[in-house]
């Protein structure tokens, strides 16, 4: 891996490969009433606002649009444990007044991002358009997809691509196989980087100062991890940096074992990490490394090569008129 201001180093032994771093219904509809559901609804697990803190009211710029921030807060209130919520619950989660929350929900319903059933509200599949817009804009998924699908076809195991977001990884692509594992993973899922194989690859690609800043950021994942000795983590990342791949052996959850390798651009800057995930009871570590690591390294190299060719293409900026 190659920090921005440090020279890179290479070795050619395999499978060792150094990582180079660098409202109601729609318009005019009635306000939703707090009708009692026909059967008691279980309370959501944990505090409603356990992950994302409201962003409304925190803008420092004169150009900050408070209404947009409030709408994003309403969307962010939903999650795995809060798939459907009442008006009162959403207002509490966002620290917004109920009339304001009602108007925002009405707007989101009219736009197709939220639907209402009785007194409860939930997101619609259209909300995925917002997340996929980011993935599509990166272009990396279009390049990686055929390679990940081929990797899964050869290994029979799930494979994902993730990028760093603060001290977490965020899954930006996934090709799954129908196997039961201890954790549910989908595009947008966040896990603490230091306990995942992909996270270790991405952390190892950072320059020392950037690594310290990243690890100091609080995790936004629902997974709670024990504090780890910084010196021990630093030694492990040194090893990842030297050999070009990382292993996470049931660190994230019991039964989850994975290996990951970096995806780089034409300059060697690490953009993402791809992995192979197995069930620990089915695939011992030695077998994972012997059977799947060469396939993973070849896949990561192929994605990097394809992205490098795409990234290196000349382009011409067209001035706006």
UniProtKB/TrEMBL annotation:
Residue ranges, compositional bias (Polar residues): 1-15
Residue ranges constituting the IclR-ED domain according to the UniProt record: 126-309
Name of one Pfam family that matches: IclR_C
Composition bias type Pro residues, residue spans: 35-45
Keyword Transcription regulation applies: yes
Keyword Transcription regulation (UniProt): yes
SUPFAM superfamilies: GAF domain-like, Winged helix' DNA-binding domain
Top-level taxon in the UniProt lineage: Bacteria
Chain intervals for the UniProt region annotation (Disordered): 1-53
InterPro entries assigned to the protein according to its UniProt record, in alphabetical order: GAF-like_dom_sf, HTH_MetabolicPath_Reg, Tscrpt_reg_IclR_C, Tscrpt_reg_IclR_N, WH-like_DNA-bd_sf, WH_DNA-bd_sf
Single GO molecular function: DNA-binding transcription factor activity
Domain HTH iclR-type residues, every copy: 65-125
Summary of the function given for this chain in its UniProt record: May be an activator protein for the gylABX operon.
Protein name from the UniProt record: Glycerol operon regulatory protein
Organism: Subtercola vilae
């Amino acid at each position: 891996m190659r920090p921005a201001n440090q020279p890179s180093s290479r070795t050619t032994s395999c499978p060792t490969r150094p990582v180079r771093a660098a409202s109601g219904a729609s318009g005019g509809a009635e306000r939703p009433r707090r009708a009692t559901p026909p059967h008691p609804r279980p309370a959501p697990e944990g505090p409603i606002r356990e992950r994302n803190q409201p962003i409304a009211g925190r803008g420092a710029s004169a150009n900050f649009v408070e209404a947009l921030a409030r709408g994003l807060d309403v969307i962010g209130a939903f999650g795995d444990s809060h798939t459907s919520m009442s008006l009162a619950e959403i207002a509490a989660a966002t620290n917004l007044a109920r009339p304001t929350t009602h108007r925002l929900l009405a707007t989101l319903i009219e736009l197709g991002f939220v639907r209402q059933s009785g007194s409860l509200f939930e997101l619609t599949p259209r909300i995925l358009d917002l997340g996929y817009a980011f993935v599509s804009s990166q272009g990396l998924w279009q390049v990686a997809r055929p390679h990940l699908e081929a990797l899964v076809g050869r290994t029979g195991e799930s494979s994902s691509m993730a990028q760093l977001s603060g001290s977490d990884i965020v899954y930006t692509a996934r090709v799954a196989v129908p196997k039961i594992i201890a954790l549910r993973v989908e595009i947008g899922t966040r896990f603490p980087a230091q306990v995942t194989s992909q996270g270790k690859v991405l952390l190892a690609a950072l320059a020392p100062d950037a690594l310290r800043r990243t690890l100091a950021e609080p995790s936004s994942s629902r997974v709670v991890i024990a504090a780890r000795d910084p010196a021990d983590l630093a030694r492990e990342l040194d090893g990842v940096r030297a050999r070009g791949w990382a292993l996470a052996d049931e660190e994230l959850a019991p039964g989850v074992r994975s290996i990951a390798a970096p995806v780089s651009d034409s300059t060697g800057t690490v953009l993402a990490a791809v992995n192979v995930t197995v069930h620990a009871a089915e695939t011992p570590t030695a077998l994972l490394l012997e059977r799947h690591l060469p396939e993973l390294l070849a896949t990561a190299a192929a994605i990097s090569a394809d992205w490098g060719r795409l990234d290196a293409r000349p382009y011409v900026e067209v001035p706006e008129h």
